[in-house]
Amino acid sequence: MIFELFITFFKIGLFTIGGGYAMISVVQDECVERKKWLDNEEFLNLLAIAESTPGPIAINMATYTGYIKGKLLGAILATVGVILPSIIVISIISYFIKDFLHIEIISNAFFGIRIAVSIIIIKTAYNLIKTEVKNSQHKALTIALFVVFLIVMVATDLLGLNISTMILVFIAILLGIILSVLRSMKVI
Amino acid sequence: MIYLNIFYDFLMIGLFSFGGGYTTIPMVKDIAEKYSVLSIEMLENFIAISESTPGPIAINLATFVGNEIGGLVGGIIATICEVLPAFVIILIFVKYFKKYIDNENVKFALSTIRPCIVGTIMAVGATMFVSNIYPYIKPVMSSSPNYSQLKYILKYFIIAFLIVMVMFLFDKIIKKKISSIKIIILGAILGIAINYIL
Predict the structure, then answer these.
(1) What are B5-42's pLDDT values in tens digits?
(2) Considering the domain boundaries, does residue B33 fall inside one?
(3) CA within 20 to 30 Å of A183's CA: A55, A96, B34, B53, which one?
(4) Does B141 map to a domain?
(5) Which residues on chain B are in Cβ contact (under 8 Å) with A180?
(6) In whole angstroms, what is the distance from residue B17 CA to residue A55 CA?
(7) Of B29, B75, B82, Cβ closest to residue A94
(8) Which domain holds residue B12?
(9) What is the domain partition of chain A in residue ranges?
(10) What are the pLDDT digits (tens) for A32-57?
């Protein structure tokens, strides 16, 4: 049983490309539909927790399922299982990548790939904020927070100020708590 | 000593990344700049590979950058450290706080934190797009343009334009979102093709 947790999450780590949200459907298929480790309600709980705690969603899911099914040892095995394929595959690639990039056709390919990556990041952020605005009860507030953080981050980069992103995230968390308190006091 | 630094830096990333995946990219970029072993260009290569190999992007990226800073052991330490805060927090949650997750105030707080974080992700995407091309635009604006620099800028914008067009067409005509991996493959093909043609 405990070992099955490890194998299952190792498989999930090995066969989901793209991670995060792509992984959600695989975990549901494996752990809810096939193995019946969790029921649907538990899975939704898990999603809510995964999205509201730090760390990659895949890790949250592995730890949670592992704990439910096998306590601490289960949690450890499931989590190690899900990250192990990454560590192995990426360590091997890291070893070769530098020499690989010197080949002309590869470096040409990566010229295009780098442009694709920056566009993907912008597009992902755009999709995320669209969903946030759609689901938000305070749309103006959501947009304002997004725009302010976007501008502050770009501005600090342009001005060469080294404000760490963590400070910004910390400010965001503080803001979230303050706004939530204000809301519960019916100020906003 | 370098391992201790990796330990601390990636522990902090794990602690401050909500939702994983792309949320770690702005912080990993900070680290790349801090250690200056990794150019923005290389970081973008890593992101592309992390996106197209198995496993969560955040984890792949941690292994990559850790490896770059401290070799194989560095990669393993970075990955474990990035996971550790999530691991501990989930355990605490499952044991003690399961009932609070549906709390309205907690949900509201999270719904105000998320747009801020998405703002930082968008900013990193934009700075990456600009930083790829900026070293080539700067000399063109200040002095007499040099042919190879102009060609680079031209190639850059042609590829960017084509990628955006394909994404747009997929969205509007086929009504399907094109996956990130396909966009990366498209970028690779365009990169090879345009350097062959121009």
Answers:
(1) 999 999 999 988 876 677 888 999 888 888 888 888 88
(2) yes
(3) A55
(4) no
(5) 105-106, 108-109, 112
(6) 5
(7) B75
(8) 2-110
(9) 2-100, 104-184
(10) 888 888 887 778 778 777 777 777 88
